[in-house]
Task: inverse folding
C-alpha cells in the first residue's frame, strides 16, 4: 500500500490544543536525531512534510499530520539531548507524558538507532509506554549504516538490554527507503482493524 496524501495539521503542547480527531493516531518517538522526521517524510513520500534538522532537540512541539484524510501521524518531541537546559527537558517530558496518558486512540512507534545500544532514556521511555498501557512497536532506524554481519552483532548487544523477536520489530532506512513498505502496510492493516472494531 502507499500513502497518497499527507498534510500538516497543527502543532501543540497542551492537551487542550490537540486537534479534534476521532480516528487512530500513529505516533513517532525517540531520541533527538534518531530520524523521526526523516522517517515520516519517507513514509509519506514527501521531502519536507516533517522538518528535519541537523541540530538535535529542535522538535519541541507535538506536530500532527493528516494522512489520506483518515489517519493522524504524530511527531513527538525528541528526548535525551544533553545540551538542552534541564528546564526545557522537564517541559519536553511533561509534553510527552501528557500525550501518552491522554485517551486518544494511539499506536506508538519507538524509534531506536540500530547502531547504538539503547540508552537509559530509551529504557525509561519503554517503561512509560508500558506504565500507561500504550500499544507500541520498536522501529530501528539507519539500518543502511550497518552490513548484515554488523547488524547481527549489534542486535545481540541490543538484546542484552531489550527483549524482542526480530520478526516483531521494524528495520528502516529513510535514506534508502528500506523497510518503508512493511511499515506502511502495517499502519494500514492496524487502521483497518481499528475501523472494524469501531463500527
Result:
Amino acid at each position: 500500500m502507499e500513502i497518497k496524501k499527507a498534510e500538516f495539521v497543527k502543532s501543540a503542547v497542551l492537551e487542550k490544543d490537540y486537534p479534534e480527531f476521532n480516528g487512530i493516531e500513529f505516533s513517532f518517538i525517540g531520541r533527538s536525531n534518531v530520524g523521526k522526521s526523516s522517517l515520516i517524510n519517507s513514509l509519506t513520500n514527501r521531502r519536507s512534510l516533517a522538518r528535519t534538522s541537523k541540530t538535535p532537540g529542535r522538535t519541541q512541539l507535538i506536530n500532527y499530520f493528516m494522512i489520506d484524510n483518515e489517519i493522524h501521524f504524530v511527531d513527538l518531541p525528541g528526548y535525551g539531548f544533553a545540551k538542552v537546559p534541564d528546564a526545557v527537558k522537564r517541559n519536553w517530558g511533561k509534553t510527552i507524558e501528557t500525550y501518552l496518558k491522554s485517551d486518544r486512540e494511539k499506536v506508538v512507534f519507538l524509534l531506536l538507532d540500530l547502531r547504538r545500544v539503547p540508552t537509559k532514556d530509551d529504557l525509561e521511555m519503554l517503561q512509560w509506554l508500558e506504565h500507561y498501557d500504550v500499544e507500541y512497536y520498536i522501529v530501528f532506524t539507519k539500518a543502511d549504516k550497518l552490513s548484515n554481519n554488523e547488524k547481527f552483532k549489534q542486535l545481540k548487544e541490543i538484546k542484552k538490554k531489550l527483549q524482542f523477536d526480530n520478526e516483531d520489530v521494524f528495520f528502516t532506512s529513510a535514506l534508502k527507503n528500506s523497510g518503508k513498505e512493511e511499515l506502511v502496510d502495517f499502519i494500514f492493516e492496524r487502521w483497518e482493524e481499528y475501523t472494524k472494531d469501531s463500527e
